[in-house]
Design brief:
168 residues; mainly alpha; two-stranded antiparallel ribbon
Length: 168
């Protein structure tokens, strides 16, 4: 992994560390094949006061789809297979390989995040939004138009990570 001062990467680490978020991310990934990095980026943009329409979300997803499909998902599949591959491949050597693949998967996801952040800078993404929670909900609803409905409990967990914007 790269050593980075990426605001988006740091946001993702903070959000993912919150109780219930890893399970919510896994649930939406499994339920509708959602790209968790896209979901996190949509939440990040909302916290920066940005709201995207369905076409903008589709463009974001299309920009990362080749990387996700050719690199991230195959690494995830390999890592999962290595967890339960059984005899004659079970053992310490397989566990070490799984750890290496897991590191590579995380590095691939980080590269995807850095690329999204570069291709879709906050100031140039979507429109301005004064309500961060409403922006997050709209961004995720636009993504759900591509993936199918996000599981309600997982959606609530993710939206609960967004701090309401103080109104003056």
């Amino acid at each position: 992994m790269q050593d980075t001062n990426s605001a988006f990467w740091n946001f993702s680490l903070r959000v993912y560390a919150r109780a219930g978020v890893p399970a919510a991310c896994l649930e939406i990934q499994e339920a509708v094949s959602a790209d968790v990095n896209v979901v996190l980026f949509l939440l990040y943009l909302a916290t920066q006061g940005r709201i995207l329409n369905a076409a903008e979300v589709a463009a974001l997803d299309a920009a990362v789809a080749p990387w996700r499909d050719a690199v991230v998902r195959p690494l995830r599949t390999a890592r999962r297979h290595l967890k339960d591959c059984g005899a004659p491949f079970a053992g310490e050597a397989t566990a070490q390989l799984r750890s290496a693949v897991k590191r590579d998967e995380l590095a691939a996801e980080q590269l995807q995040q850095l690329t999204m952040e570069a291709l879709f800078p906050v100031a140039a993404s979507g429109g301005a939004a004064s309500d961060h929670v409403a922006a997050a909900r709209t961004n995720l609803e636009s993504y759900a138009a591509l993936t199918g409905p996000l599981p309600p409990a997982a959606l609530k967990t993710l939206l609960d990570c967004i701090e309401p914007t103080e109104q003056t």
